[in-house]
Write a structure and sequence with these properties.
heterodimer, A: alpha+beta, 60s Ribosomal Protein L30, Chain: A, about 60% helix, B: mainly alpha, 4 helices, about 80% helix
């Protein structure tokens, strides 16, 4: 190419000396600019990689402009093909930038996925840590029995004769909800118990209603109903003798029986 | 394209020694296509000097065609085609750059979240 340019410029010079009209100063400038642009793109390894066709066309147009510049009165044509050559060079640069951006994008996309995965893992591990902490909390609030892990909500969480759970139970209930959310396979059975004052039917009803009101709160807070069983046992299975007020208070209770991690719940009484 | 204009052109060349160009119908079609493609990727003359030139030159090419000034029409249309292709390529380059920016923003955000997670 450069030999061609040399040859052409020699011709140009000769033409200019002979006729003084073979080249137009504008066309010479256009030719120089197009040659400069072409030189830059063809020396760029990335351009050759991403836009070889554009480079070839830029070269072809430039060669044509070169050839024409040796003819008389061809100034407009020289400028025209020099223009086309410069355009192809510019298009080559754009296509190269797009190709490079695509490569950069692919790398960044990998990086993004890697980070996303790392973040997900870190979140998961913090959830697992949280779950472990909650499990410890629940275990400390509950006792391991032959029926499984059992948590007792005492009489103080209900008003006398009333099935409505008091606000003071909120913290415990929220912990149970979180625990169940973190352990989606676990299910619970909520068992209500009463003391032996009052009629048997009355006690059965009250014990069942209290258990149900605990279950309702769990469901309201987003636990699937299917994971919550409700039983009312009336004055059966007292934990203390009903002889004293203290003993009766201990017998008025709601027990939450947790299944194991696989969802296996001990049989109801 | 047909035999007769070619013969006529040859005759003109023989007579006058200067080439008369055939009607550049194919080139005009290519240019129109390039303009449509540039528009399709979202290039607009208000934002792209190249597309503005392309449209102006194409209009001149069509005017030249009407006047049967075929050489002028061909040259205008050829330049317009490449102006339009450059405008199209510039839009696509900008879009690819914008995509990179979006990715970079996301990555920065992810890194920040990860650091926050570690700090906790």
């Amino acid at each position: 190419m450069s030999r061609l340019i040399h040859g052409v410029s020699a011709l140009l010079l000769a033409g200019a000396m002979l006729g003084g009209c073979a080249t137009h100063p504008n066309s010479e400038l256009a030719l120089q600019q197009a040659g400069g642009d072409f030189q830059k793109v063809k020396e760029d390894a990335n351009v050759l990689r991403f836009a070889p066709k554009d480079v070839i066309r830029a070269g072809e147009s430039l060669a044509r402009a070169d050839r024409l510049s040796s003819y008389w009165g061809s100034g407009a044509d020289v400028e025209h093909y020099a223009y086309l050559s410069r355009r192809y060079s510019a298009i080559a640069r754009e296509h190269t930038e797009q190709g490079l951006n695509a490569e950069r994008g692919a790398k960044l996309e990998l990086e993004r996925q890697r980070l996303q995965l790392a973040l997900r893992e870190s979140k998961l591990s913090s959830v697992q840590q949280q779950g472990k902490w909650l499990e410890e909390q629940i275990t400390s609030l509950a006792t391991q029995t032959d029926r499984g892990l059992v948590m007792t909500l005492g009489d103080v969480l209900f008003d006398t004769g009333d099935a409505e759970l008091k606000n003071s139970a909120n913290r415990t209930v929220l912990k149970i909800v979180q625990f169940l959310q973190l352990n989606p396979k676990r299910v619970v059975r909520i068992e209500g118990y009463a003391d032996n004052t009052g009629g048997e039917q009355e006690n059965l009803r009250l014990s069942r209603d209290r258990a149900q009101s605990v279950a309702d709160v769990l469901v309201d807070l987003g636990i699937d109903e299917k994971r919550v069983q409700v039983e009312g046992y009336g004055d059966q299975y007292p934990v203390e003798a009903n002889a004293s007020e203290r003993g009766r208070a201990q017998n008025r209770r709601v027990e939450i029986v947790f299944s194991d991690a696989k969802g296996q719940l001990g049989a109801a009484r | 394209m047909t035999f007769r204009p070619l013969l006529a052109a040859l005759a003109v060349v023989a007579l006058a020694g200067c080439a008369a160009d055939p009607a550049p119908n194919e080139q005009l079609r290519l240019t129109r296509q390039a303009l449509e493609q540039a528009n399709a990727v979202g290039a607009v003359a208000e934002e792209s000097a190249e597309l503005k030139w392309a449209e102006d030159k194409f209009a001149r090419a069509e005017a030249d065609m009407a006047e049967q000034s075929y050489k002028g029409a061909r040259m205008q249309a050829e330049q317009a085609e490449l102006d339009a292709r450059l405008a199209e390529a510039q839009v696509l380059t900008r879009k690819s750059q914008e995509q990179l920016n979006v990715l970079n923003t996301r990555i920065t955000r992810l890194r920040k979240q990860l650091q926050l997670g570690e700090a906790q």
